[in-house]
Every structure is written in C-alpha cells, then in structure tokens.
C-alpha cells in the first residue's frame, strides 16, 4: 500500500504520462514585505532563498519557460508541462499585467496547466475572475501559503494575515474549477503535536485538494535566525519531522494530494535544520516512519478519539 498520495501519481493518472512543473520567477513583490505595508515580512523569509528578481516584472518569462520546456523534452522526453509562478506573491499586480503574464505562459506548446503561488490576502475579486477565465483554457492550481491554522502562530510569524483570511480565500476559490493547494510548515515556534494535528484536521475537512508540507527553515540574516541563535526555539531533528509529517498525513483524506514533503534553500544561507540538504533522506525517513507505524494517509481520519 502506498503511504501517501503523491503528486507524481496524481499527474500520471490525470494526464496518462509524465508531466513536469516548470518553475518561473516573474518578479512579483510580496505585499507583506514592501515599504508601503511597513510590516517587514515573515520572520523566516529571505527573498534570495527563492527569488532571483529584486524588482517588478523584469525577468523575461518567455526565456524561462522556453528553457524549462526544452530541458524537459531533451533530457527526459517530457511533452506536457505545468507552468508554475513560484517566487513571491504571484497575484500581487494589476489584473491587466497578470492576464498578460499568465496568457503568455499558457501559450507554449505542451502546456496543460498553470500553477499560481500566492497569499490568502492577495486574491481580489477581479483576480479571482481572471483565474476562473484561465481555468476554462487550461488546468489551474492556486497555491496558498498558510503555514498554520493558529492565529497566535501567524502573528508570531508576522504573516500579515489571519486564518480567517485564508478561509475566505478558500471559499472564493472553491467555487471555481481550480485545484487548491495549501502550504504548511512543521516545527513552528510555540507549536506542539496537538497544534499540528489541529491544523491537519482543519484542512482535512476543507474543500482544498492538495497540501505542501515542509519543515521550518532557519535562514541567516532573518528575525527567525536571531530567535534560533538566542535559543528561543529548537529546530526539529529529522526523526521528529518525519514523525510530525506522518501525524499530519494520517489525518488527511486519501484523495488529498501531497505535493511536497520537504524544502530546500541555498546551502550558504541555511542555519538549520541541516538535514534538509538531503531531500531523498527526508522522504525516505517519512516513508520508513509510515512502515514502522503500519499506517498510511487517512489512517486516523475517522477515529473520533484521536
């Protein structure tokens, strides 16, 4: 029995062949970090950990997409692609600009899907209407950064939005023919196993389709790094993370796709946990934990005493 429902399995079932996600950086800004908001951004965030761009819309997405598709075709023989607007907040622009960028992306031969990473508080009605329009041309995913269902944690992280903002965003998107993917971090300061289980149960009974899990990364020159160095919280060990990831996935419906189970950052800015440098070891540890428990995704979903 497969321990959890992988994204690769879902894509193979849906498209009957291998599909590759081409990640691009369109130069978007995060509204939680800009000078107008004055909020300073999330305490764990460093833009250079995921974005090559420091100013608005100045990277040629044509070149990024073309290079990604050519690489997939030449090296792996892949013919179908999902274009992933990954870096920063990819709905944080006037809708006219979004429409131009998204339509450029889906115009390439072989593109079957569009994935848009954004924040729960950055989905205005005109953007939602645009996403609905695009969803009638290609398959669309919207990825929402949540991290935790606990407002106390979101405040500590300086997320700049509440769980209620996330719930409103999900409600809007659930009315569209799109797939909703929620990002969650494990090992957050102040959270224990029961807090993690609470977040898992909330997602399990919501209209989302997919989840991305990863450990909290401590990056140099962040507020979180100062907290870590002052021993205000402890980074998870690999065994602890594997255990929490299994706890989380055991609560989710069997048909909810697990898009991701770990995360990486440039090694020169990573303080902890250092075991995240080995992606395969992380995934293998989670799989082994499931085998040791003899459980699987959804195992505790219908257990009221859990």
Describe this structure in words.
The protein has 306 residues and is of the alpha/beta class. Helix content is 36%, strand content 17%. It contains ten helices and nine strands. Helix 7 (193-204) links the parallel strand 5 and strand 6 (210-215). Helix 9 crosses helix 10.
Beginning-to-end CA distance, first to last residue: 22 Å
Q: What order do the SSEs take from the amino end to the carboxyl end, as H and E?
A: HEHEHEHEHHEHEEHHEEH
User: Measured on Cα atoms, how large is the radius of gyration?
Assistant: 19 Å
Tell me the strand percentage band: 15-25%
Total beta-strand segments: 9
Q: What general form does the structure show?
A: globular
The helicity comes to: 25-40%
Structural class: alpha/beta
Largest sheet: 7 strands, parallel
Question: Which keywords apply here?
Answer:
306 residues; alpha/beta; 7-stranded parallel beta sheet; two-stranded antiparallel ribbon; 10 helices; 17% strand
